[in-house]
Amino acid sequence: MTTNDSIETHCRTLRLPYIRDHYQTEIDDALKAKLSFHDFLLAVLRAQVVQRVDNSINRALHTAGFSSIKRLEEFDFSFQPQIDEKKIRELASLHFLDKSENIILLGPPGVGKTHLAIAIGIKACQASKRVAFYTVHKIVSELSIAHTTKSLPNLLRKIARLDLLIIDELGYMQLNEAQAALFFQLISARYEKGSIIITSNQNPDQWGTIFNDNIVATAIMDRLFHHSHPFAINGKSYRMKHFDQTSS
């Protein structure tokens, strides 16, 4: 076995794929830069760590199930000036997760609620937090199936272990009595145990219509808004931004 074969075998055993695939290039670069053995070793190990962290973040992003990738750096706060940018950036530091606090994003379609929810979710993934993104339709469907198959307690325990649960599009569908009861169980399972970000196109005084029951709606709101950071966004739609510019 050659020296190169031995290096690659040891790298596979130690699960060091970056070093296995790039050690020769790193050696060549080190020789050109006249690096010491210590500096060469540090550079190779640092590159391996970067790749491992990147892979971990990519897995977390995939597992979270985001509908799209939206980053906070891409959000145009100048288009929605009533949003407290300082507060949003403070929340993006993720301290609210330590306190099991919630974020409530309210407003009409297109104002950036989902963008902000996903952007903060991505920050959480980058911090190695357990995150899951659901639309209301998807989470209600999963809860209903779990209830039918008698696996609801397992699903609720799984969701309760998340650091951050994001529920998007509350208000786009009306829940029946059974669905509303399941949604209440979900919110109760995370109450003061884990953070939720929820987006809704309906004001809280209209949630009784969403859940088909004012009492259930009040109980859900009581748990969501306690220890929460609410934002009411009433600006223009980002989706109509280009149309407004071309028609002016």
Task: List the keywords.
single chain, 248 residues, alpha/beta, Rossmann fold, five-stranded parallel sheet, 12 helices, 5 strands, elongated
Task: Count the E strands.
Answer: 5
Query: Ends: how far apart?
Result: 72 Å
CATH topology tier name of the largest domain: Rossmann fold
What is Rg?
A: 23 Å
List the domain count as a whole number: 2
- Structural category is alpha/beta
Ranges where pLDDT stays below 50 over 5 or more residues in a row are none
| Helical content class | 55-70%
- Please list the strands of the largest sheet in the order they lie side by side: 2-3-4-1-5
Largest sheet: 5 strands, parallel
**Which CATH class of the largest domain applies here?**
Alpha Beta
Instruction: Please write the string of helix (H) and strand (E) elements.
Output: HHHHHEHEHHEHEHHEH
CATH architectural group of the largest domain: 3-Layer(aba) Sandwich
Work out the helix count. 12
Strand residue percentage? 5-15%
- For CATH, the homologous superfamily of the largest domain is named as P-loop containing nucleotide triphosphate hydrolases
Outline: elongated
Mean pLDDT: 90
Oligomer: single chain
